[in-house]
Amino acid sequence: MSGDHGGPSAPLAARVRHLEGLLEQRGLVDPQELDRALEAFLARSSPANGAALVARAWVDEGFRARLLADANAALPELALSMGGGLQEQRLRVVENTEDSHNVIVCTLCSCYPIALLGPSPTWYKSEAYRSRVVRDPRGVLREFGFEPGPAVQIHVWDASAESRYMVLPRRPAGTGDLDEQALAARVTRNGLIGVAPV
Amino acid sequence: MADRFSAGDRVRTIRADPPHHTRLPRYARGATGTVVERQGRHPLPDRRARCLPAEPEPVYAVAFAARELFGEGDHTVTVDLWESYLRPAEREPGR
Lengths: 198, 95
Fold this sequence. Notes:
The complex is a heterodimer.
Chain A: H1 10-25, H2 31-44, H3 47-59, H4 61-69, H5 71-74, E1 90-95, E2 100-105, H6 114-117, H7 122-125, H8 127-132, H9 137-143, E3 153-158, E4 163-168, H10 180-186, H11 189-193
Parallel strand pairs in A: 1-4, 2-3
Chain B: E1 10-13, E2 32-43, H1 45-48, E3 56-65, H2 66-70, E4 76-82, E5 86-88
């Protein structure tokens, strides 16, 4: 496993700054271009995006099926995308059911669907979470205050390559009269990672 | 070149311990699992990280039983793996 990602990587940050400086000096990038791109990306990136997808999937069976079959193709229906980086990233949405529960991790670094969930929480990048959740997911979930029943099969997804993952949580009981917006407000970031129910 | 594996195939990961960057997690080395789906084609990071030529190759989601990886546990762990990390595995009796 690679090192702890809890703190900034000073040598790497210095190299990036140096490279940025050279690119600007040689007129290859506008000094403000990178900042603008980054700010625009982060302004669009929020767990509210993931929550909106989940709420739509809960009220629209057709959308739910399209989201699970090909998430990238379904995202534009809510004016969302996995673009923003060098290339559009593949998104895979995994659905919780009565008898199966999904949890997302990146054991090698901290891969995460930033466009849909915003910047990842610090614990997601911690060595403790990354190393333990693949081995003992029930133990880790218990520390988040969540204990799926013994009959529930736990599926851990290690997103350490080119795909990004998001959990489609189960719709909470007693929410039949809520509209899409009210449902979205119920969806938490932890629910989208799979360390909590919704 | 056609993708070597498809969903449902049993595969075994290589047991390499390379002295360079790799995206084959240590806990998933030398383990047998089942291909869940193909995920497209991407250059092998082991080569790209060393600035070597790397043609895009298939990446697969491969599901492993926790017991296969850790000797215990009743969950599954699905790992995204490049084709270079995988070899065909015989279907084990009783599985």
